[in-house]
Design brief:
Layout: H1 2-20, E1 25-30, E2 36-49, E3 54-58, E4 63-68, E5 76-82, E6 88-95, E7 100-109, H2 111-114, E8 124-128, E9 132-136, E10 140-143, E11 147-155, E12 158-172, E13 185-187, H3 189-202, E14 218-221, E15 228-229, E16 254-260, E17 263-279, E18 285-291, E19 298-303, E20 311-318, E21 323-333, E22 336-347, E23 358-363, E24 368-371, E25 376-379, E26 383-386, E27 392-402, E28 415-417, H4 419-422, E29 433-440, E30 443-460, E31 463-470, E32 476-485, E33 488-497, E34 501-512, H5 513-517, E35 526-537, E36 554-559, E37 564-568, E38 572-575, E39 579-584, E40 587-602, E41 610-612, H6 615-654
Length: 655
């Protein structure tokens, strides 16, 4: 056995060397217009084992069999390769809630083809034990170092394992524009470690004092204002892939309506699938994923709550499909709209290996809390509903539902978001450190470092209160090194987070617009923060006690025409102490360990010599912010009191 292992290692080494001398395998899939939507290029070596024997082969024999492009608003793409033996290698690409991308793999083959003498002639699906992280949905993944994915499964007491060793890898499955791969590259961690080590060896000391932010924590925006996703500590749960439908794509978005008295009174909208687990004739468990048919191919029935009723129901009956019916029961409980149970009837005769002819199962137990009965509930990123048995799993994307108080046949103006859409929420007492870099043609113009949180006043069920919200770890970054504001040459940084939130910051110089645009010779001698703007909404996950009238409401606050923290052109500004900047109407931004530099013109993200804040300067900022915050908060309190008095007066009159 040891002799066999050494021999196999020798063959494997020779084959690895041979592949490295040849052209990489490239697999492309295109839209109907023949423009590339998925591009996978790599040198790859497969090692397949049944525990006793190993077979090694490369990827040159594989060609593209089929695929599924991710269109606008879709979060999954798929690519299937096949060889002359009709073995299938399937890649599924998923966009996570933080906009990062994972690639999962599955290899479908018949063991008798690789291991002669195997008594089992059926095929088997090997699933990967861990997905490959590919950066963000707008990036091109590149990795010169070897990356290994392990795929495994057991069949009739034999465990089959395949190692997929990939190197010189280049992958992009989303947002390929006009067939051109993204210039924004996500470099794998193995290559990043090599690059950092090389830079440490060859980089000389700068001519002036600098402080270099940690490379692993810097989010950089390059040419054309492309966006990159910030660091994330999110984990992804591996979902088993059903054997009968290995790479399902969600059907088109549909809208299902319950109509009573010629009025729409319940609306369900989204892209839906049902995972069905059943017993086969061989007394084994099998799963299949089927699409919920589009609204044009179903009949919708139901009943809506009227008067003091607290229950509503929606039933979807497809026309000649695997699903016979699908019913959802909604109820108002403790002032909240809930999905209390749902039932599916499935025609198992559509699956020849099924032991029974029909499956009728009700999912109940803990109600799924949705929203206020006056508002809608939505979950764009996707999720699922099921019970512990997982006999039925209702899966969704772009999900939106309102089961009560539908007016004029439309969803309410505002609504609740699911937690998946928002992503992780950091503790405001310990906000994460962020380092941002804005570049143009690889030349850095802005570097900004700070822990950031916001003081936001709002109307809660207990009156006007203020809550601190931190800038999270998950975000996208963009910016502009050449723009103007209020007649002066400026630069800006834009951070998008929490689904719909956006913070923008302008840095303005002492160079007038006429000099900048006409190409006059100019030199920036000083710059300052001239504008801070925050676009936000009162998300129910962040403002859990907000009154219904403001939940989900989009709001804007900005401070403009400011001259905050003036700094010399060749210096950076630093203030490690906590500083507060007023924005508007009582809303303020709080920074700690702040350091920034604009109008840089260097290839490095290092800060130049810093100018530290003084007591007077910091106190001045704090006084402005505190005074304005109290003024804005007082205004909100006055409005709340007036509304309350009018409400009491109205109640007295009607009584």
């Amino acid at each position: 056995m040891a002799l066999y292992s050494y021999k196999n290692l020798f063959v494997r080494t020779i084959l690895l060397w041979g592949i490295s001398q040849t052209k990489r395998s490239e697999y492309k899939y295109t839209y109907d217009n023949n423009e590339t939507c998925i591009d996978v290029k790599m040198d790859v070596l497969f090692t397949l084992s049944n525990g006793m024997e190993e077979v090694t082969f490369d990827g040159n024999n594989f060609t593209v069999k089929s695929g599924d492009c991710a269109k606008f608003g879709e979060y999954q793409a798929a690519l299937t390769l096949a060889n002359s033996n009709e073995d299938f290698l399937s890649f599924t690409f998923n966009i996570n809630p933080d906009l990062s991308v994972n690639m999962s793999s599955m290899f479908t083959f018949a063991p008798t083809e690789f291991f002669p003498g195997t008594p089992i002639s059926t095929t088997i699906n090997l699933l990967d034990t861990g997905d490959l992280k590919l950066g963000s949905d707008t990036q091109l993944y590149q990795c010169g170092s070897t990356q290994r994915m392990t795929l495994t499964e057991e069949l009739e007491g034999t465990t089959y394992t395949m190692y997929m060793d990939m190197f010189f890898v280049q992958i992009q499955a989303f947002n390929i524009n006009n067939g051109t791969l993204s210039p924004d590259v996500f470099v794998c961690s193995a290559d990043q470690m090599t690059t950092v080590a090389q830079e440490t060896t060859v980089t000389s000391e700068p001519a002036k004092p600098t402080t270099e932010p940690s490379a692993s924590n810097v989010t950089t925006v390059g040419p054309s204002n492309t966006t990159t996703v910030g660091p994330s500590n999110m984990t992804t749960k591996q979902t088993p892939v059903p054997t009968s439908s290995p790479n399902p794509s969600f059907p088109p978005k549909s809208r299902y309506e319950v109509i009573e008295n010629f009025k729409v009174c319940l609306i369900l909208e989204g892209r839906f699938q049902l995972k069905v687990t059943y017993m086969t004739k061989e007394n084994k468990s099998a799963s299949v994923i089927v699409d919920i048919p589009e609204s044009s191919d179903v009949t919708v029935m139901g009943a809506c709550a009227n008067g003091n009723d607290t229950k509503s129901i929606l039933t979807i009956t497809p026309i000649d499909e695997e699903i016979l019916s699908l019913t959802f029961n909604y109820e108002i409980m403790n002032g909240t709209s809930n999905l209390v149970s749902w039932t599916a009837e499935v025609n198992l005769t559509k699956f020849p290996d099924a032991r029974e002819s029909e499956l009728n199962h009700t999912v109940s137990g803990n109600p799924v809390e949705l929203s206020s009965p006056k508002l809608f509930y939505k979950c764009e990123k996707g999720g699922s509903f099921s019970d512990d048995s997982e006999v039925l799993v209702f899966m969704f994307k772009e999900f939106k539902v309102q089961a009560f108080n539908v007016e004029d046949g439309r969803f309410s103006e505002n609504g609740y978001d699911c937690k998946e859409d928002l992503g992780p929420i950091p503790d405001p007492e310990n906000p994460p450190m962020h380092v941002f870099a804005i570049k143009r043609d690889n030349i850095t113009c802005i570097v900004f470092k700070a822990k950031i949180k916001f003081n936001i006043p709002y109307l809660s069920n207990n009156g006007v209160v203020t809550k601190q919200i931190s800038l999270p770890k998950n975000y996208t970054l963009s910016g502009d090194c050449n723009t103007t504001l209020n007649g002066y040459y400026s630069q800006k940084m834009v951070i998008n987070f929490y689904n719909t939130w956006e913070m923008s910051m302008f840095f303005t110089s002492d160079v007038q617009q006429s000099e900048f645009w006409r190409g006059y010779t100019y030199r920036v001698t000083k710059y300052h923060i001239s504008q801070i703007q925050l676009l936000y909404d009162f998300d129910n996950n962040l403002f859990t006690d907000a009154v219904d009238s403001i939940v989900g409401k989009n709001t804007e606050a900005f401070a403009t025409n400011r001259r905050l923290l003036p700094t010399d052109e060749d210096k950076s500004y630093m203030c490690n102490k906590e500083s507060t900047f007023n924005i508007q109407n009582g809303l303020s931004m709080i920074t700690k360990e702040l350091q920034f530099q604009a109008f840089k013109n260097e290839y490095t993200t290092a800060f130049s010599a810093e100018v530290e804040c003084g007591e007077e300067e910091e106190t001045y900022v704090l006084l402005i912010s505190t005074g304005a915050a109290l003024g804005g908060l007082l205004l909100l309190v006055i409005v709340a009191v007036i509304v309350q008095r009018k409400r009491k007066r109205y109640e007295q009159l009607t009584y």
